[in-house]
Amino acid sequence: MSLRYLTAGETHGPQLTAIIEGLPSNLELDFEALNFQLLRRQKGHGRGRRMQIEQDTAQIVGGVRHGRTTGAPVALVVANNDWKHWTSVMNVEPIEGGDEAKRRVHRPRPGHADLNGGIKYDLKDLRNVLERSSARETAARVAVGAVARQFLANFGIKVGGHVVSIGGITAPAPNLPIDELIERTEASPVRVADAATEQKMIALIDQTKADGDSIGGVVECIVAGLPIGLGSHVQWDRKLDGRIAQAVVSINAFKGVEIGIGFEAANLPGSKVHDEILYTEERGYHRASNRLGGFEGGMTNGEPIVVRGVMKPIPTLYKPLQSVDIDTKEAFTAQVERSDACAVPAASVVMESVVVWEVAKAFLEKFGGDSMEEIKANYANYLKQVAEY
Amino acid sequence: MSLRYLTAGETHGPQLTAIIEGLPSNLELDFEALNFQLLRRQKGHGRGRRMQIEQDTAQIVGGVRHGRTTGAPVALVVANNDWKHWTSVMNVEPIEGGDEAKRRVHRPRPGHADLNGGIKYDLKDLRNVLERSSARETAARVAVGAVARQFLANFGIKVGGHVVSIGGITAPAPNLPIDELIERTEASPVRVADAATEQKMIALIDQTKADGDSIGGVVECIVAGLPIGLGSHVQWDRKLDGRIAQAVVSINAFKGVEIGIGFEAANLPGSKVHDEILYTEERGYHRASNRLGGFEGGMTNGEPIVVRGVMKPIPTLYKPLQSVDIDTKEAFTAQVERSDACAVPAASVVMESVVVWEVAKAFLEKFGGDSMEEIKANYANYLKQVAEY
Amino acid sequence: MSLRYLTAGETHGPQLTAIIEGLPSNLELDFEALNFQLLRRQKGHGRGRRMQIEQDTAQIVGGVRHGRTTGAPVALVVANNDWKHWTSVMNVEPIEGGDEAKRRVHRPRPGHADLNGGIKYDLKDLRNVLERSSARETAARVAVGAVARQFLANFGIKVGGHVVSIGGITAPAPNLPIDELIERTEASPVRVADAATEQKMIALIDQTKADGDSIGGVVECIVAGLPIGLGSHVQWDRKLDGRIAQAVVSINAFKGVEIGIGFEAANLPGSKVHDEILYTEERGYHRASNRLGGFEGGMTNGEPIVVRGVMKPIPTLYKPLQSVDIDTKEAFTAQVERSDACAVPAASVVMESVVVWEVAKAFLEKFGGDSMEEIKANYANYLKQVAEY
Amino acid sequence: MSLRYLTAGETHGPQLTAIIEGLPSNLELDFEALNFQLLRRQKGHGRGRRMQIEQDTAQIVGGVRHGRTTGAPVALVVANNDWKHWTSVMNVEPIEGGDEAKRRVHRPRPGHADLNGGIKYDLKDLRNVLERSSARETAARVAVGAVARQFLANFGIKVGGHVVSIGGITAPAPNLPIDELIERTEASPVRVADAATEQKMIALIDQTKADGDSIGGVVECIVAGLPIGLGSHVQWDRKLDGRIAQAVVSINAFKGVEIGIGFEAANLPGSKVHDEILYTEERGYHRASNRLGGFEGGMTNGEPIVVRGVMKPIPTLYKPLQSVDIDTKEAFTAQVERSDACAVPAASVVMESVVVWEVAKAFLEKFGGDSMEEIKANYANYLKQVAEY
């Protein structure tokens, strides 16, 4: 059975919860490293007040003992540090009082799940939608991805990410080794390696905030150190690039995804798009370029996975949009619940997390095994087979 | 259990086979309309010789009786009309003879699954990879999508598609009602509504062919007539836009997907990205624009789904690329197996097919029901609920 | 997507966690009723000391607000009331000290997962297996089932269970209406309706305990008030009786399951096995008997589901069994970790819980819908269709 | 992704179709051995006329080339040799003529899916139900299982089955090595190893046929040569015994399943139920007995899997049962469509097939790998780990 997970929890509820099922035993977990991923999600120039309140940490309440997984499902909890202010509004039990006590929402915000979710689930308090559709849930996905990241690190697989553009300002392609990319972007409040671009992006974010508007951008994730042959061409739903596409577009506010040169491929002749195949005894099969972003036939080809996603500007706005009150059917201009002018740097971390999850899942599908020892032996087997091919 | 399907079959094997599981009973099938979809996939300026050989038709060998589904799994067969020339090469039983008799492939083509698939599956005859990874398989997916299309038509849901750009030539946005879009693009050999663009695209395709090169492009699919609330925001893998993204990127040669304004959202302020909410008694809730392509929170919002995918140029080339023989490890320039200069118009049909499948799946998840009668009653029921919300 | 759930947690860990995904919105939850199910699992003559320590309660930490589900995943926590004594032994972080501090287990108990799990997961501390394989996990499954039970109650579907036999003592078939069955068995410490049998069972349990041995038994679950047509005959994995069989055999210590007359069907002629079909205007189609336990063709036929499962004696023994120390490979006689002489009455509650879950899942697959209102309307639709058939 | 399959096809339709997804490459298939399994399903004393008409053979139309799998999905077709008589009745296209031409069925047979299926799917011609619910579909499952059987044979895993009882006549436990069991039961028209029992069973079947009645029985399947650790205790749906239970109960007419001593465990003290653990250098860990049928904690323990299923008498009867015409709502006595007095020996073959499928699925989940070479290396690797534990 494939690796799987479920998350639960609301943005103002007591906690986010995730259960990861299908991990091997004897995976050593570095809890600091895990929490560092949560911290990375909270950082980034352009975040609003709430990110300062909460210092997210993941508490493990199942599946790990004395620093290692046991093979049992791993349960993770990310507590809401602000929960004490919400115990009544978000109470699981019925409470006294009317709309005010419940902080009922009846004014759907354009660009959010509010209206669609209210209609679909027949909910007249749109808080019941927005509490779950909030990007707060991505903290759980980052925690889950952090476990996958540590798993893959055992096999020399590394994951980095960076911001490609914000609000139309595009950084030059970094072209850095993965370790240096990780280090350089970590030091940047907008997760770009180029200092000049960084300054321009920060200025644009500040201006946007001052204008009461918001901006989106494009982020890129790179996974290096991969074997040939994750994913499969034999059935559409086993193609790893397709699965990664689903994972990326499922991130809140993401509206597109591309692999390798992506949409640019529409403008180039075939002779400029593909990656020629080379062979040397030291490196085995490899490529002269990586335009296809590490995939052919839905399988990894040994080059780094390169995937980009686009995040739209956060729809929570100071510059209000027109909407309709669901009680009165009267027009109003949409209210503000939160206030990030730009969440693109954080989105880069979320995208890394969901991509690395899919890679770990495909990795375990290919190599099987129930303990780290067994997986490592299987992996060594396969690398030998590849070397001898 | 959700609607699901599997396909099997090789490009030069006897047939493609698909099994669709989870269809309701009493769906009237129009077999001509079904085969028309297969024909659409074969058309398009820029296709090579093979498309003329085969007039694909789908034969139904299970799940349908006297023109209607029975609720049982539907089995579809698309025969290979050229099979008689391949009975030995593709025989399921061992054959006499060496590499020539087997038409063994040992020279992997860049941009194809050949090398990765050969390594992953430990196959020294790369024909065993390319026969399955070939885009021929999309004929099965089109047949499957054609059933989904007919199912959704019962609920007034219509699917259209058109070519946005080929080799850098971009058509003006058609802005047509869905019926007119379907009609206009059907009449065009490159599936564009604009006559001037059509001519330019045809000329470019001809030139590319003459140059021995290939070109890709961008295609767009529109699904109109949708209810609010397909998909869900509550768990990442239930977001319908994410599922559509997977389906699109899983099409052979597709390298990216975007919803609504997609990557353009990275360059616009939040105040220019979202779709304001309006309400009138006749139309109920609706939107002033459709920048988000019919999705908020992973759910349909009642506006048409607008999704674009990018297809890279077909990697089969007259202009050869460098590769390595797996027997000798010596460099060579890659061989040609087929010769479409441009398959973008056909890819548009494939994309429609995989998108409409995901919509049908989400539709059945939401409305349940085992017979068309039951589903129609459930649907009417929900529309009433929406109207009264 | 179908209703699904995952559980996590160890018997001596801080908590059991469950996430339920796919519930509709607006399901009113009765928290007392939910906890009552957990209490039922803890009762029953023959339980050991531990059942008295813990008064299990389920805390909901997601998906429910002001007494109703929101459509979001429901997260449930059952805390371990004895956790304070285990914080070091079960610490997620590495601890100081050797085998004693860790309460390491190196002596596998026959009849448990210990040895197989230790080998599979390459774990030299068998505690890492037994903590998860413990029947403590069924508390989470009972909590999950309690939610399904409340969901189905909205449609008049009721679930009861009773003990058929313990250690060879068999109760007479109760032949009671479901409400009376529920009431009568609830009053019995061994969950039988017949007072004379009750006394004999209690005496046997006491004697078994005195002997340092353990006994198993057979339990029966009845689900009444069902519509015709849950499950489907069209594909093997959609047959509801098959799914129920999986759920039952997956309960710790269960070794078999039968539907209706079950194994007795092997001894009877066909003329004595099937249920004749009757029709009256008031009742519609119904049956003269219920030998097939509510199923034909993997679908409900409107008669109550009747399913029985067999639980082997709990392998934890005062009368020790021979085993082998994994460190020394030397024989020893197996150690005792817990001490229930008979857990059959509790197992009856667990079986009800897993059966009702499968019924709820099949119910939602058939009727679709995202809110209770929508499901109720769909259900009314279908009942009308059935009445008019 | 796990091994999966779908089947399609009707009993009087042109063919049964199956697609198997997830097989490794380079599995050598013995087509004669595959068809031998289909033949085994057709044999057995007590079968009616139809079994003689058809000599089922499986034709492979995808996924296999020159005698070996390629990793692509395997498509299997079992043609209906009697199809020429049914081309009109079972036409996929609408036909002229009324009920007679269509051989419409409006009289539901008790014990079949007819009435439930007709109501669920809103079908007034019950032929649309019975064509799919017919046990004919098990031919496809046997073909699928035959592939799994050949896969597992590569790892020394063998599958046998025998009839335990028919109509109340019980054979003595054979207690034979697996190879001898296979040989002996194959030679018996009722699949029992004991000659005296064989004669009694044959006489009973003949008498039952003469009486116009039918009988069922109990069959047992044994899987030998297994590694420790298939399946897992960590989540209920990964327990292999549970999955096997689903597979068995999903066979047409099966009403129960038990593992090892099964229901007998209810009558024995714990000290007589479990399997003591032994260790020798040659054999490693093994057991003094196999009462638990090869499973502890939902995982294999290295002992043979022993699973029994009960088949009710086939509901098609010469001795008619009362039913109700769906047109007139008038009572009638149920019609006869077919005439097997006893299908228990054939059911034994079907049960072997579905059990071996689940084992192969769990095997691939544990060992991963895409080619036979890779899986064999992984397996060797694990056996070494087990030996060193």
From TrEMBL, chains A, B, C, D:
Keyword S-adenosyl-L-methionine: no
EC number(s) on file: 4.2.3.5
UniProt keyword terms in alphabetical order: Amino-acid biosynthesis, Aromatic amino acid biosynthesis, FAD, Flavoprotein, FMN, Lyase, NADP
Required cofactor(s): FMNH2
Pfam family, one: Chorismate_synt
Binding residue positions for FMN: 132-134, 252-253, 297, 312-316, 338
GO terms of molecular function: chorismate synthase activity; FMN binding
One Gene Ontology term from the biological process aspect of the record: aromatic amino acid family biosynthetic process
Cofactor details (free text): Reduced FMN (FMNH(2)).
Pathway: Metabolic intermediate biosynthesis; chorismate biosynthesis; chorismate from D-erythrose 4-phosphate and phosphoenolpyruvate: step 7/7
UniProt binding sites for NADP(+): 41, 47
Reactions catalysed according to its record: 5-O-(1-carboxyvinyl)-3-phosphoshikimate = chorismate + phosphate
Subunit comment: Homotetramer.
The family this protein is said to belong to: Belongs to the chorismate synthase family.
Function: This reaction introduces a second double bond into the aromatic ring system.
Protein name stated in the entry: Chorismate synthase
